[in-house]
């Protein structure tokens, strides 16, 4: 019999599908265990070998838990809404729903390219997913529940007294009975005070406007990251280095009316909840920093000459006598009001420039110092002295109040700002209020100082000073103690098409929720996915996008009469909407009436093990926790936290291939003309990696480049200098000089490079139109050798290796074992196919324990002690490794085990049957096949995992080295239960000892039972 992985794997994948082997039950006597992978986005590029790393790890664990007798839920689905599909639709003229479906199910795109399809690729690797629970966020039967959750958020407010969300009707009831004076809610900052009588006399529209200030999802004018190139708002985590992650387009800050989620209401619970979950400290710390809890005070500075105040939150009210200036965010609403005419132009220019920098970029850039004086002054609350007001983009409008009281002697950034603008109008000298030297740097510590020159705070430290400062501010009615959070409410609108439609229509400009019984509100068809000509989102192109309140259905847009037919919301929800609750849908994925039944939610509770990337630390993982806590408050989610244990898998890196393009710079001395390569239409020249250092290849390349290029250069020169046509036409090769050469590394597709790093030159030329006439300067043997570099595996870097190729050549079990063997799960590691053949060879060697070329060779003979020792050593090691997620060392143990059993000549069923079970989580296809060939019926997937028996590892004998004067002369095997005297008696009577001693009596006999025997003298 021969190990044929393709045949075996296809057989068992079909068996699992037909028999629903991995379908979980919602009611079972078995204990439950929920293993989840982070929701993948299905792109047309499909899977590369880096994607399955986490999936294989979670699958090993899920299979192991089944072997342990658990009812395991291990589902899979697709986060199928999002900007990439929409951008692809715009570029290619295809519907995003069509491209998304092909990307998942496989097929052909508009250009006729064959798409493997995520589902087929996943199945090929043999994952034990419960496909009966598959979800796709872009399916209406899924997003109707996302819409339902949005409505629940809209109809809720956060009661600080009960510390949870409550139905908006309870807030209305309070308003009706006593007004809002005693309401302790998370709400907008500027809330008017009203009595019950006033509330009851307000018009309905006025009441709705007030309620919007309390609702957990609300409409408000917000500073957003606007990307003109994509025509949409972007979240902070969708921006990299000030440009959009998708496409690299410029992003600017802009005020827009947007839907927002009041995640800030949950800031403290999100912070405290981190103490109750088994996540890495790095992820927890990322969330703690993002939430950013600060304890301090609100301080009100009156503006001179204006009927307004600047409100500041500070964590150091004790330093208030050190304030020498104030800084506002460029977007602060007071800026335009207080700026004096002489500074207006500078202020306007600065605001425009800062709007082009993302908040992340502004926060991270601690080196650049910039700002402009407004010409305005505030009044110090105690000294009444004037305090100049500046703007600076290191202050963010969305954090705190968008204003800081600058104390340069106690803050490094304020210190740098004050020194940078030292001597300019509007910048006072730095005042030192610490008994410390600040000539070289600010003193930022909260310990080890006494305040000086600080009026009634002089002589105090941080704690006493803070307390007294707050008390004094409260007496003046110019401040109070406060806890602040960096976490801001999440903008929830996107100016896109391919996202969940809001279940919202507008009456007199105010949002109204569509009754939940009429959900889903299905995304309409549009011809164009770009914004409308007047700047409305893509849904503004929809012809059927209005809500008929009489018929309760979506109707033609031109029927809007603002009486019974009203306009629907044109924005869509962000990509994180559908992924913020998807784990609960898996619990009861086929429930048409509700997102999941109470029974299913109670049974599964939460995710026991979640595996995914650390890049989602402050995005998906934070939003998910927020939605889960909200649903817990509303009585739906059974637990406070969604994910008990989180593991972040490392990245599998690709080995990129580089070709080196030569950039020649020409000089024609007789005409005194210098030409740079980028202006010329000459063939691309590529130099082999051996010569990529300029000094090494100048002698190789100069003449060749000139010979191939000078005719084209002359054509270009005549076009540029027609008055010199005759002189140019008479130029010869000798008249051209390469005054400089540079090289540019360019990614080459790794599929065009062999294992010896040799480039297929013809394939490269045919790869792109602009390379068809390329010239290659090769090594002496005529070969072009590429450069290599390990970096992120990505389609854009052309270093992708697809798992399909590995599976086709070696089988999925080899791929699974190899990816686990590469190194610790959490670490990044380079992909190197050199070791795959070794893993494949191991599987063939495993099979040879069970069958030879013709038949099964497993026997019923009793196993030897060594056989049992090898087996139980493996059971113990693999069990511990899986529990500790040390999968790479398990694979090493499998190899050791098979080598030992092969050496021992073991073919005993009592050993090989449990061995098949132990290896099953890692290599399930061959394990199933061996289990079947051993005469067992049914799948190996749910067979009990072998129990480790320590007795088989207990040694009864010891092979002692026997030394004379420290030099080992022979060995002897003795029972371990012998005493020291018994060992000495045996050794002294041994013929080899007698021969070594030659009649002498040793001075000392050193014996440590179980370790050493040494005769001295």
TrEMBL record:
Domain named Leucyl-tRNA synthetase editing: residues: 288-473
InterPro entries, A to Z: aa-tRNA-synth_I_CS (IPR001412), aa-tRNA-synth_Ia (IPR002300), Leu-tRNA-ligase (IPR002302), Leu_tRNA-synth_edit (IPR025709), M/V/L/I-tRNA-synth_anticd-bd (IPR013155), Rossmann-like_a/b/a_fold (IPR014729), tRNAsynth_Ia_anticodon-bd (IPR009080), Val/Leu/Ile-tRNA-synth_edit (IPR009008)
Reactions this protein catalyses: tRNA(Leu) + L-leucine + ATP = L-leucyl-tRNA(Leu) + AMP + diphosphate
Enzyme Commission identifier(s): 6.1.1.4
Binding site for ATP: 795
Pfam families with a match to the protein in the record: Anticodon_1 (PF08264), tRNA-synt_1 (PF00133), tRNA-synt_1_2 (PF13603)
ATP-binding among keywords: yes
GO MF assignments: aminoacyl-tRNA deacylase activity; ATP binding; leucine-tRNA ligase activity
UniProt motif 'KMSKS' region: location: 792-796
Subcellular location(s) per record: Cytoplasm
Domain (Aminoacyl-tRNA synthetase class Ia) ranges: 11-155, 788-818
Any one of the GO BP annotations: leucyl-tRNA aminoacylation
GO annotations of cellular component type: cytosol
UniProt keyword terms in alphabetical order: Aminoacyl-tRNA synthetase, ATP-binding, Cytoplasm, Ligase, Nucleotide-binding, Protein biosynthesis
Domain of life: Bacteria
Enzyme class (EC, first level): ligase
Domain called Methionyl/Valyl/Leucyl/Isoleucyl-tRNA synthetase anticodon-binding: residue spans: 868-980
Ranges annotated as spanning the membrane: none
Entry annotated with the keyword Transport: no
Family: Belongs to the class-I aminoacyl-tRNA synthetase family.
Name this protein carries in UniProt: Leucine--tRNA ligase
Organism from which the protein derives: Flavobacterium degerlachei
């Amino acid at each position: 019999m021969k190990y044929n992985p393709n045949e075996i794997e296809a057989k068992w994948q079909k068996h699992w599908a037909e028999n629903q082997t991995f379908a979980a039950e919602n009611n079972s006597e078995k204990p439950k265990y929920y293993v989840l992978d982070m929701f993948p986005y299905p792109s047309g590029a499909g899977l590369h070998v880096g994607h399955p790393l986490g999936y294989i790890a979670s699958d090993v664990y899920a299979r192991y838990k089944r072997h342990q007798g658990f009812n395991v839920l291990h589902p899979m689905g697709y986060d199928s809404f999002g900007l990439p599909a929409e951008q692809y639709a715009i570029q290619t003229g295809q519907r995003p729903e069509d491209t998304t479906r092909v990307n998942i199910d496989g097929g052909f795109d508009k250009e006729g390219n064959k798409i493997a399809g995520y589902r087929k690729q996943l199945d090929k690797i043999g994952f034990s997913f419960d496909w009966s629970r598959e979800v796709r966020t872009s399916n209406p039967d899924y997003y109707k529940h996302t819409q339902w959750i949005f409505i629940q958020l809209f109809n809720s407010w956060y009661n600080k007294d009960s510390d949870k969300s409550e139905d908006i009707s309870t807030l209305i009831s309070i308003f009706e009975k006593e007004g809002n004076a005693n309401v302790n809610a998370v709400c907008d900052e500027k809330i008017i005070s009203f009595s019950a009588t006033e509330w009851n006399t307000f018009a309905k529209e006025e009441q709705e406007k007030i309620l919007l200030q309390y609702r957990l999802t609300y409409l408000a004018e917000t500073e957003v990251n606007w990307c003109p190139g994509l025509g949409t708002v972007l979240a902070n985590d969708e921006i990299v280095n000030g440009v959009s992650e998708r496409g690299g387009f410029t992003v600017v800050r802009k005020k827009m009316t947007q839907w927002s989620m009041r995640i800030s209401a949950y800031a403290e619970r999100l912070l405290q909840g981190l103490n109750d979950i088994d996540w890495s400290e790095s992820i927890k710390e990322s969330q703690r920093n993002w939430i950013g809890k600060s304890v301090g005070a609100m301080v009100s500075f009156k503006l001179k000459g204006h009927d307004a105040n600047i409100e500041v939150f500070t964590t150091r009210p004790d330093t208030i006598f050190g304030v020498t200036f104030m800084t506002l965010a460029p977007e602060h609403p007071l800026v335009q009001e207080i700026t004096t005419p002489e500074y207006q132009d500078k202020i306007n220019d600065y605001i425009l420039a800062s709007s082009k920098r993302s908040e992340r970029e502004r926060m991270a850039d601690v080196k650049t110092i910039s700002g402009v004086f407004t010409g305005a002054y505030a009044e110090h609350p105690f000294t009444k002295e004037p305090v100049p007001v500046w703007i600076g983009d290191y202050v963010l409008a969305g954090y705190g109040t968008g204003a800081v009281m600058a104390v340069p002697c106690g803050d490094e950034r304020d210190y740098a700002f004050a020194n940078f603008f030292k001597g300019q109008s509007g910048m006072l000298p730095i005042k030192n209020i610490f008994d410390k030297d600040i000539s070289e740097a600010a003193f930022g510590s909260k310990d080890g100082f006494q305040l000086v020159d600080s009026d009634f705070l002089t002589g105090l430290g941080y704690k006493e000073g803070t307390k007294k400062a707050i008390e004094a501010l409260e007496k003046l009615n110019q401040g109070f103690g406060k806890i602040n959070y960096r976490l801001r409410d999440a903008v929830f609108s996107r100016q896109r098409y391919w996202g969940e439609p809001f279940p919202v229509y507008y009456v007199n400009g105010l949002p109204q929720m569509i009754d939940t019984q009429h959900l889903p509100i299905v995304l309409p068809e549009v011809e164009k996915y770009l914004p409308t000509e007047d700047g409305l989102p893509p849904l503004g192109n929809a012809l059927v996008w209005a809500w008929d309140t009489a018929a309760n259905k979506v109707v033609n847009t031109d029927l809007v009469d603002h009486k019974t037919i009203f306009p629907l919301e044109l924005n869509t929800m962000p990509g994180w909407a559908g992924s913020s609750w998807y784990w609960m849908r898996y619990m009861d994925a086929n429930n048409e009436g509700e997102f999941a039944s109470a029974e299913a939610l109670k049974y599964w509770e939460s995710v026991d093990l979640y595996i995914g990337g650390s890049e989602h630390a402050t995005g998906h993982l934070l939003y998910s926790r927020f939605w889960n806590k909200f649903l817990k408050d509303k009585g739906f989610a059974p637990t406070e936290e969604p994910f008990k244990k989180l593991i972040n898998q490392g990245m599998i890196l690709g080995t990129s291939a580089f070709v080196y393009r030569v950039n020649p710079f020409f000089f024609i001395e007789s005409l005194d003309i210098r030409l740079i390569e980028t202006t010329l239409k000459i063939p691309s020249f590529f130099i082999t990696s051996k010569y990529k250092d300029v000094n090494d290849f100048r002698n190789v390349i100069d003449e060749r480049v000139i010979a191939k290029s000078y005719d084209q250069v002359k054509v270009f020169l005549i076009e540029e200098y027609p008055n010199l046509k005759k002189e140019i036409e008479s130029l010869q090769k000798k008249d051209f000089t390469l005054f400089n050469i540079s090289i540019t590394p360019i990614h080459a597709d790794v599929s065009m490079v062999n294992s010896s790093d040799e480039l297929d030159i013809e394939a490269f030329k045919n790869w792109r139109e602009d390379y068809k006439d390329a010239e290659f300067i090769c090594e002496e043997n005529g070969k072009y050798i590429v450069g290599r570099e390990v970096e992120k595996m990505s389609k854009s870097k052309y270093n992708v290796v697809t798992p399909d190729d590995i599976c086709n050549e070696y089988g999925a079990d080899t791929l699974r074992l190899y990816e686990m063997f590469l190194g610790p799960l959490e670490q990044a590691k380079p992909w190197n196919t050199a070791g795959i053949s070794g893993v494949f060879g191991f599987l063939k060697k495993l099979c040879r324990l069970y069958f030879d070329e013709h038949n099964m060779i497993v026997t019923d003979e009793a196993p030897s002690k060594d056989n049992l020792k090898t087996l139980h050593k493996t059971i113990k090691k693999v069990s511990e490794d899986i529990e500790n997620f040390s999968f790479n060392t398990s694979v090493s143990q499998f190899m050791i085990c098979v080598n030992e059993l092969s050496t021992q000549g073991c073919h005993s069923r009592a050993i090989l049957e449990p061995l098949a079970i132990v290896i099953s989580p890692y290599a399930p296809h061959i394990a199933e096949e061996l289990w079947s060939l051993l005469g067992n019926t049914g799948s190996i997937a749910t067979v009990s995992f072998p129990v480790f028996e320590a007795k088989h590892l207990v040694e009864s004998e010891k092979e002692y080295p026997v030394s004379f004067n420290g030099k080992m002369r022979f060995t002897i095997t003795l029972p371990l239960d012998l005493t020291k005297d018994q060992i000495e008696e045996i050794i002294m009577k041994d013929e080899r000892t007698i021969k070594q001693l030659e009649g002498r009596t040793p001075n000392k006999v050193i014996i440590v039972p179980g370790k050493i025997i040494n005769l001295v003298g």
